[in-house]
Specification:
alpha+beta, three-stranded antiparallel sheet, 19% helix
């Protein structure tokens, strides 16, 4: 039977604006020995599968420094302090794309990497999304908005055009949600 580890000590080592590095010292329930683990503390994240009235999905292209390349994704971002995940999803969709929706559904929640991250990523479906304004990008954002037929989404994943794992999770939840309608 798997048992939880007993955390003895926890210290924040560094703060990097959008995440902290924490060191935990925990006791193994199997051996009784003490071990150190490093955890990235991060705010929760949101992803938005925005579908227009014309059955198109709203996608964004942006440069990602981790892989030093341009990615094709869905809108999303961090849950700001004081916001609920749905409030963040609405804000991120508007800021990154200029689209809004009055029809929102939470379609899934994942732990992005529970081995080293302590946060969750919420996926939302924004049905009947409409272009209602301009992008409101932050100084570090350069985002191109495109729409493609929803029917092309699986091809974009299988062809390797969409590679972001959390985006693929959100699209999976979207497909699962469609099958229940």
């Amino acid at each position: 039977m798997i048992k939880k580890w007993n955390r003895q000590k926890s210290d924040i080592l560094n703060n990097y604006r959008i995440f902290n590095i924490r060191k935990d010292t925990s006791i193994s329930p199997v051996t009784g020995k003490e071990h150190e683990f490093y955890v990235i503390e991060s705010a929760d994240w949101v992803n938005v599968v925005a579908i227009t009235q014309d059955e198109e999905i709203v996608l964004i292209k942006q440069y990602r420094h981790g892989i030093m390349d341009i990615t094709l994704e869905i809108p999303g971002g961090m849950v700001d302090k004081g916001e609920s995940p749905i409030q963040s999803a609405r804000r991120e969709l508007l800021e990154e794309t200029g689209y809004t929706s009055e029809n929102w559904v939470e379609i899934g929640v994942v732990n992005p990497n529970p081995a080293i991250l302590n946060n969750k990523c919420y996926s939302y479906l924004a049905l009947n999304s409409i272009k209602s304004g301009n992008q409101k990008l932050e100084g570090t954002e350069d985002i191109q908005v495109i729409t493609v037929p929803v029917s092309n989404t699986n091809l974009l994943v299988s062809s390797g055009e969409i590679t972001h794992s959390l985006v693929i999770c959100a699209l999976h939840y979207y497909e699962k949600h469609k099958s229940t309608l």
